[in-house]
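Sync notes, pocket subgroup
Present: LS, DG
LS reminded everyone that the earlier model was apo-only. Rerun requested with adenosine-5'-triphosphate included. Inputs:
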Amino acid sequence: MQNPSSTISALLQEHRRFPPSESIASRANARADLYERGREPVGFWAEMARGIDWHTPFTKTLEWNAPWAKWFIGGTLNASVNCVDRHLADGRRTRAAIIWEGEPSVPGNIGGEVRVLTYGDLHREVNRAAHALRDLGIAKGDRVAIYMPMVPEAVIAMLACARIGAPHTVIFGGFAPEAIRDRVNDCGAKAIITADGGYRRGNVVPLYDNVAKAAEGAPTVQKVLVLRRVGEAVRPVTLKAGRDVWWHEALDAAPTSICPPEMVDSEHPLYILYTSGTTGKPKGMLHTTGGYLVGTMATARAVFDLKDDDVYWCTADVGWVTGHSYIVYGPLANGATCLIYEGAPDFPDKDRFWQIVAKHRVSILYTAPTAIRSFMRFGDAFPARHDLSSLRLLGTVGEPINPEAWIWYHEKIGHGRCPIVDTWWQTETGQILITPLPGVTTTKPGSATFPFPGIQADVVDEQGNPVPLGSGGYLVIRHPWPGMARTLWGDDERYRETYWSRFPGIYFTGDGARRDEEGYFWLLGRVDDVLNVAGHRIGTMEVESALVSHPSVAEAAVIGVTHEIKGQALAAFVTPRAGIVADDRLIDTLKRHVATTIGPIARPDQIFITAELPKTRSAKIMRRLLRDIAEGRVLGDTTTLTDPAVVADIRERYAHTEA
Ligand code: ATP
Ligand code: MG
């Protein structure tokens, strides 16, 4: 094939485009002139910064000494005041801030237990928790680890830390003791906030026990605050005297007065968060207060088109950056009503998400391609059981979304009515950087469309020169933005080296992208995943999308393996849909399918059928492990893998096929 860009996405872009409907456009928060205003980033972000409450106004918008950025210099503020206190004055005291649903079914209910916290309730609880933390000896600048189930107290704990100026580091509740210990030691946390347990797919996760084990080798930890979530009858725990304190006892002992917020400098650390480990050892990204809040608030408002009557549900866990920026800080800074669900999407049955949407009349749903592909695999009957008419906007994040999955989401969940915002961003970027704006942008399935106003994204070649429209290269960001990470905790040099050395002064995302003739951005996956097969650059993403577009395939991961003649050859790992017979004929069919969809050059040399793909705990496909397997290498860091058995299984099959 001569032209590797005439791919499936190119075909789709010609035929499928979704302009904003008039009814959406007339009501939308964002207007086309936002792009116009965003042409000058510094002025644009200064304007956006007026959306948050400053204790002391900033005197200068940006100080940029690449790669070191400072935003809103001289400004002081408090994040919890912006997310909570100020809404008491703007008429939201009795409006729901959090609608929470627990996982276990409650007899006589639809689904599980529900708790609603108004902004007034949230204010009271954040103040009590902030007092309790201060009483435990936590002060401004001390790091606090949070390892909790998806309950309102996780959000309360984050905001309480922010209130007293103690940076938090949230650790996903699925991590094992060793991973907790690594993170706690890396940032030197003084305290850990956890729970006796948490519900996940009908089981109880022993959160406290994991923390107790982790704390053994964590000398900086002086206090452990323990929430009683599942209770003595379900999971008895014995607290360690002198170190551990029950959450309810600490809060009951706290004064009922307002806990005076620490007004911090705009550049004061708000949190440290470790990346998901898809490409290597997790990195502790440091985010600061003012810029991060401005970036997340402005994007949440424009991208999710938040309105007073919306029920907004972001299905991420607070342990990931999506949970930080788009469950907690961005939506709450906007005074939104956020739904939080404790458990698994397929428990007790595969329609749990749709039951929740119908029960709470969710209007905005933000989830991940991996979840959407699972729902496709479960079958259309599950969403069809429920009334999804409350939905008006759908979002995705985390991985490139295959056009096939996009269309399914649009049709089966959005019933053709809801715009889809495919949002590209990273733990490093803090805020959404590439995304459609509902009401403004014409979308194309599989494309994250355009940079958010004020963001200067580009696609460049090896030398850092912009590539012509229609071709691919490295995704970079040319101008700093307020939500960007400031450094890696304790490792300025690794930060500079990883993100700022490849193209000096320009942020290197590590992702490959292509721009089509109309300038739309198409994410191709990690740079390491963009292959060179006999001189043709092929994004593994496009081959995966071609495979997923076949009716027998639920999910696919494609990697490059060293090939004597071609340089690199393609190997694909494929999970069939339920009920599909996986035999040699299927493998042949799939190879032919890729060859006809993209071109003979993209035809995989090998296809392996596997029941599962290896995923990180944030549910992303870990292609680097498949590469290690295929090339017979020692496996890299596997601490963030969901299920190590999957890798062992694939390894065995792979060895078997090779033999
Ligand atoms: P690590 O950096 O430790 O390898 P990670 O990159 O998976 O882990 P995150 O910061 O959670 O950690 O994920 C950001 C990455 O996810 C992006 O660099 C990109 O590869 C992918 N991504 C996120 N959103 C999208 C999207 N809408 N389209 C395509 N890719 C996306
Ligand atoms: Mg990354």
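DG: The radius of gyration is 24 Å.
LS: The longest helix spans residues 119-135.
Action: DG to write up.
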